[in-house]
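Honest question from a wet-lab person: if I give you the sequences of every part of a complex, can you actually get the arrangement of the whole thing, not just the pieces? Trying it with mine:
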Amino acid sequence: MSQSSPDPVVYLDHAATTPMVPAAVEALTAHLLDVGNPSSLHASGRRARRIVEESRETIAQAVNCRPGEVVFTAGGTEADNLAIKGIYWSRQGTDARRTRVLTTSVEHHAVLDPVFWLGEGEGAQVELLPVDRDGRLDLDALRASVERDPASVALISVMWANNEVGTLQPVDDVVAIAAAHGIPVHTDGVQAIGTVPVDFAASGVDALALTGHKVGGPYGVGALVVRRELAVTALVHGGGQERDIRSGTVDTPAIAGLAAAVELAVKHQPEHAVRMRALRARLVEGVLAAVPGAMLNGPALDDPTARLPGNAHLSFPGCEGDSLLMLLDARGIECSTGSACSAGVPQPSHVLLAMGREPDEARSSLRFSLGHTSTEADVDALVAAIGPCVERARAAKA
Amino acid sequence: MKVLAAMSGGVDSAVAAARAAQAGHDVTGIHLALSRNPASYRSGARGCCTIEDSNDARRAADIIGIPFYVWDLSERFHEDVVEDFMDEYAAGRTPNPCLRCNEKIKFAAVLDRALALGFGAVATGHYAQLRTGEDGLIEMHRAIDHGKDQSYVLGVLDQHQLAHSLFPLGDTHKSAVRAEAAERGLLVADKPDSHDICFVADGDNAGWLREKLGDRAPNHGGAIVDDATGEELGRHTGTYGFTIGQRKGLRIGTPAPDGKPRFVLDIEPVSGTVTVGARERLAVDRLSGIKPRWCGTVPRRLEGTVQLRAHGGEHRAVVTTADDAVDIELLDPAFGIAPGQAAVIYDGTRVVGSATVSATVSATVAATQATT
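Yes, you can. This is the full assembly:
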């Protein structure tokens, strides 16, 4: 992103992580030299505690929840784990018949893996609900699954917005189905905060995960917003700092940075979304024109309630997404192929497979995600480079 | 030139990549993921196939200052190397999967993709030397460090493959490579060498084959028969546990009348019969080879040497070729040569080519131990 660099990087991977906004950097750095454990009783401790609590209030206001509903964590993955395992254990503790965990087949691994873990080790019955070709949850399947035996459902987890293809899930409808039977709903809102309107109270969800580094805040800090009335069993035991369900001295500077970023992202969300949609339209049109045979994956672009505004996900038949990513990277253009395992081995995206694509199609795809620093010049650089790169990548696969 | 450096996570390929970069090439590092489920083929960092090795390769690339990616070749590797390895053992032959991997994966699938993506060559940490001969062809020679020389496992490369390969370590001794790695700040400088077959845990071939072969092995058990008397000396649980020339692990109760140790002479995969006998009976002075691969010009008749194992010695030999058949007359007899092994043919230090041993002729008795 450096302006002085002779070869500026074209960063089109904001859904992976987006640069910190200056306000967050300021808020974070302002407290780096301050001493004081927020749990200490003296003046320094109180000063730190005040920053944490003011940050909590800022976030509560931004996402419309009560301050006491914000539980700080070390990021989105921990927040998702806390929600899924914590709610499952607590619901199990109240009624042992509640063994079913319902989620979608297109969740992030931060949701899928704890759900599978509950299935393997804790006796949960996991049901992955199908999605349509756009990646949208099949509500009839959810309703049928719930109504088959509502008393046995421990929780439902449905992401607000998909990280790969940008599909916005029908969270309102999920809540309506669950509420009829008193089943708690968790949503992974990591991609949604600051990109689409998110109102925790109005949504009716019981828990929502968010993270700093996707909204212009710092890495390693996030929150689980969880209704006060919902019992959650702790994952990490200790001082009980966060509502007794999350222990560990909280990271005061990072939390200040997180609050600044969330506040700003939510405040600017409407105009940010308009700008992202315009840039995205330019990107998709440009790429489709430059590459014969390229296809857009996920929902249509014209409906703002269907898709994240900055997400473009495209298949390039005849290419390995892998090769294409490398060729673009060599030209300073950065994007993503989807999920990678810890060894960096590219697997065909489970999201695209769930959407009914063949493994080959899935492997031929790239995600371009726009964010607050994206410009028309970035998009134009991609559009100029993509044609020759695809040609070369196709030759490499032949 | 744009060079793709294959980085296993070991010290050799790391130094090879560093040298290629220092020589002024535009180098990109790649780690080949050969196991679909990393760590399933073997555990611990021993040369390939693990997350740890992938991370070691990545850190070496960071220090060299080159981009780094992981390429998933697991499907190709499974089809072309692992399946082939199993088929060969099931048929009673003794394959060398490293040659197969070089022939089908590193200098084929990877090289082809690299060339198509705009690279000019693939660099590896193999110990072998390339030079241009008087006829303008690229010649491959043994490495300076004879103890580490890997020209044997590269004996399957043809002129096209050699012309797009770089082996930056061929002129250096292993000890110097380690010292150079340390000097360059590469953290793998002291990493132990990999030895066994990368996808077989703990070097336990028989155990691995027993587990993986399943129905593929037509015979899970059979007789161990004395070559001289025809007497059944014992039973075994699978022919894949044996290789021709093997002496240990036969577990025969009855000693030979002369008290001398017995060796595996022949393996008959269909009946499951394993024939054992005296060492002299293992001596071979003539080999038939199939599926030849030539590094350059195909020789009609050559007086040179032949190497029959990865770390085996050289045998003086007269090699004659006709179409796709290679006849090798060994002037120094070899012992315990199994069909499936690769015979790599040298003219001095130069690799001429290779063939897969299809049949051997015993020096003591002119009986052909041909297998299917």
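Two things worth pointing out. Chain B touches chain A at residues 28, 31, 33, 38, 50-51, 54-55, 58, 67, 69-72, 74, 112-113, 116-118 (CB under 8 Å). The longest strand of chain B covers residues 350-362.
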